[in-house]
Task: inverse folding
């Protein structure tokens, strides 16, 4: 008879082993999935995890790792703060879109003026866009007790429609021959989020992501606010008695995650994407949720998880072009990862006991 | 703008159709939440139902078999959620999100070869003379069997929760799982059954979108209906009849904004398309003040040791 018994304290070992186990399980079952799709499982897995790093064209793919990883880490760091405290901002995708729109609109407003002030202004605008969008569910939650999960998610759909409207209307390139989409910011030097070292993939978004990781680490480990976040998540009643202000906490966590998501959107639109288009957003805001959990809501863990998830994006692209693996298969692969992670997490808080069941 | 282009009869009949996926999904979630479980994976189960139903209907030529397959598909996916939250005691919010992310990807994978295919049509129920009644006929008696099934299920769930022993046990588990456990009820088993019922309902709702309302398969075609269904449960304060009312309200808004788009109102299409989501938020704001109706154990995991 096997029973589950609650551990007196969460297991440190399992807390860090769980993500690794989940990745291995995902590789195994992902391999089965690829085999079911008629692809060689070993080749597929190697294509996804090995080729981008050490394959023949790794020099091209490695910079991509930073480009794809930066928005994921930026957004996930913000989300993790709220998730730790039991505040669920699910609408990062919408905040990402609004950050991009605000940032791009600010840059385009100055076109074709050249000034070194424009890019910093765009950064501020992008952060503001995400912040404003995240403050809607935050303020509604604080004022009216509305569920922040549902509101932030609804706002994703609103933001998507707004994005469509912007790329077909106000922000449309007047010299774009009627095609939807804004002017390309890459061709406007003052607004271009260019690579800091050519060919490295390192742009300002990557720098921002690294700063965010350090900032979150210090906040959680050394600052009183970080302590409030951790206590609220682990023992809400204790938090109340120790004088944590829940209103401030909601506003801070939602606002910070929105701000970072907005920044991610702004860096993306000014750099790798270049322009506002109808299908500008590719789901980073949702994938970042997986990244946050995979990284155990810990800043360093999120950095690693962001890299891994970026790898699956790039490897997925390669597998798509070389092996004809459908794009959706990678989405399933990423979803599986979260499943296994949640399932294996059981062993962090519980242990298996073998032996006779007690008589109830 | 030409408002006369909107035919009031077709409009009303249309909003009954638009409301049906919401009725199914929200009703399923209502039962799940009554048992004390918060499953945020409605969107994922709906889209899986949508593709399972669509594929089966196309392959077999029978829409009804399609709906059956949709219910099975939705319930199968919900079992994953049940495993995560009931057996491995994972966080319900995270598990629900995982279900949605996984469902969206998996449905896209399943549906690759069905893009652009036309599904077989489900015929209207033959009401004979009733159909010929002016006004009421075209509104009430010109639909397919699944739409009436949705209505019947609202009545059935209401009666089940209110008058039967099974309903009482379900509510007891949702209000206080410790007390229910102490009385000898199998909390995990009851919750798993409720979760599966919710999955089957969400699957039916999804298939109603892909087989009847649209009818076509496109990736991510449920477009947030599952999330609106979740909001609807709050709106209904966990009461089946208010849920029906809410679904018709949202169906009406969706249909109205589509009709206004068709009639060429001066408001840009994108802003009209936003309206159902914005109205959902407004409704949540107005109704969130009263949380007393929520099941007391909602979202809390149960383990016999604690």
Result:
């Amino acid at each position: 008879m096997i029973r589950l018994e609650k551990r007196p304290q969460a297991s440190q070992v399992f807390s860090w082993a769980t993500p690794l186990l989940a990745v291995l399980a995902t590789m195994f079952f992902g391999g089965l999935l690829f085999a079911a799709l008629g692809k060689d499982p070993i080749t597929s897995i190697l294509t996804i995890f090995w080729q981008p790093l050490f394959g023949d064209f790794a020099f091209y793919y490695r910079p991509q790792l930073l480009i794809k990883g930066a928005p994921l880490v930026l957004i996930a760091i913000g989300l993790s703060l709220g998730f730790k405290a039991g505040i669920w901002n699910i609408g990062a995708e919408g905040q990402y879109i609004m950050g991009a729109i605000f940032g791009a609109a600010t840059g385009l407003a100055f076109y074709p003026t050249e000034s070194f002030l424009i890019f910093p202004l765009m950064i501020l605008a992008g952060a503001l866009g995400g912040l404003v969008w995240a403050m809607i569910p935050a303020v509604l939650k604080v004022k009216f007790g509305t569920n922040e999960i549902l509101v932030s998610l609804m706002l994703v759909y609103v933001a998507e429609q707004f994005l469509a409207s912007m790329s077909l209307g106000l922000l449309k390139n007047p010299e774009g021959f009627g095609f939807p989409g804004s002017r390309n910011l890459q061709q406007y030097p003052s607004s271009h989020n260019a690579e800091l070292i050519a060919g490295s993939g390192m742009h300002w978004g990557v720098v921002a992501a690294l700063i965010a990781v350090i900032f979150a680490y210090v906040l959680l480990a050394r600052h009183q606010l970080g302590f409030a976040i951790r206590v609220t998540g682990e023992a809400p009643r204790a938090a109340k008695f120790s004088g944590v202000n829940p209103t401030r906490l909601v506003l801070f966590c939602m606002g910070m995650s929105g701000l970072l998501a907005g920044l991610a959107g702004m860096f993306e639109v000014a750099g790798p994407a270049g322009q506002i288009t109808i299908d500008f957003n590719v789901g980073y805001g949702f994938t970042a949720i997986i990244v946050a959990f995979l990284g155990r809501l810990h800043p360093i863990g999120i950095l690693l998880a962001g890299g891994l998830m970026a790898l699956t994006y790039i490897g997925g692209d390669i597998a798509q072009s070389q092996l004809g693996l459908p794009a959706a298969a990678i989405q399933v692969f990423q979803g599986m990862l979260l499943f296994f992670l949640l399932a294996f997490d059981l062993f962090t808080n519980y242990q298996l006991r073998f032996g006779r069941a007690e008589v109830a | 703008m030409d408002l006369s282009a909107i035919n009031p009869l077709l409009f009303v009949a249309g909003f009954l159709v638009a409301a049906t996926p919401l009725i199914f999904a929200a009703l399923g979630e209502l039962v799940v939440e009554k048992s004390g479980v918060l499953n945020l994976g409605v969107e994922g189960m709906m889209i899986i139902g949508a593709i399972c139903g669509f594929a089966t209907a196309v392959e077999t030529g029978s829409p009804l078999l399609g709906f059956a397959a949709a219910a099975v598909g939705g319930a199968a996916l919900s079992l994953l959620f049940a495993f995560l939250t009931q057996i491995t005691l994972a966080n319900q919010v995270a598990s629900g999100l995982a279900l949605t992310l996984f469902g969206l990807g998996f449905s896209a994978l399943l549906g690759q070869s069905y893009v652009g295919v036309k599904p077989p049509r489900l015929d209207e129920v033959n009401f004979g003379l009733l159909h010929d009644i002016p006004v009421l006929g075209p509104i009430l008696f010109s639909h397919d069997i699944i739409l009436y099934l949705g209505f019947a299920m609202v009545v059935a769930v209401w009666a089940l929760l209110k008058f039967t022993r099974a309903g009482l046990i379900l509510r007891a588990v949702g209000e206080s799982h410790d007390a229910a456990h102490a009385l000898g009820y199998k909390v995990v088993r009851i919750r798993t059954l409720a979760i599966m019922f919710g999955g089957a309902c969400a699957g039916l709702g999804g298939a109603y979108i892909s087989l009847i309302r649209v009818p076509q398969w496109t990736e991510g075609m449920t477009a947030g209906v599952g999330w609106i269904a979740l909001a609807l449960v709050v709106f209904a304060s966990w009461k089946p009849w208010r849920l029906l009312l809410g679904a018709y309200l949202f169906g009406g808004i969706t249909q109205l904004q589509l009709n206004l788009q068709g009639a060429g109102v001066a408001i840009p299409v994108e802003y009209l398309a936003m309206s159902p989501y914005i109205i959902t938020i407004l409704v949540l704001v107005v109704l969130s003040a009263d949380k007393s109706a929520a099941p007391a154990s909602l979202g809390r995991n149960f383990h016999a040791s604690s």
User: Anything to note?
Assistant: Chain A touches chain B through 51 residues (CB under 8 Å). The first strand of chain A starts at residue 2 and ends at 6. The CA atoms of residues 90 and 209 of chain A lie 20 Å apart. Chain A has one domain: 38-325.
